[in-house]
Amino acid sequence: MQxxxxxxxxxxxxxxxxxxxFANDAVxxxxxxxxxxxxxxGRASMAAVRLGQFLAAGPCPADDCARGLRRAMxxxxxxxxxxxxxxxxxxxxxxxxxxxxxxxxxxxxTTMRLKHIDHALDL
Length: 123
Fold this sequence. Notes:
The chain is mainly alpha-helical and 123 residues long. 85% of the residues lie in helices and 0% in strands.
């Protein structure tokens, strides 16, 4: 319910930060619990949907911000799918750590992009 009250960019930023933290823990621990991966997959997917709705709903922000939001949306969808892979596949610890590193890198880039956009739009 809280997600409905949060601006889509702020929501996506919080999800991206959480993904980075959880992926970082997974890299350090060598495992990513499936329930946590499933929850993060769902949240990342929802954040991507909300960013898409925000872009489609009204006057588009500046071109560079809109482009950055589209990139963040694609990254969130990718991270959702990667986390979903952890849930659906039986993986060894090294493979889980590889996926966690990919999510960590993508989440960091997405977080930096969304922070820049949030600051530029002064939300």
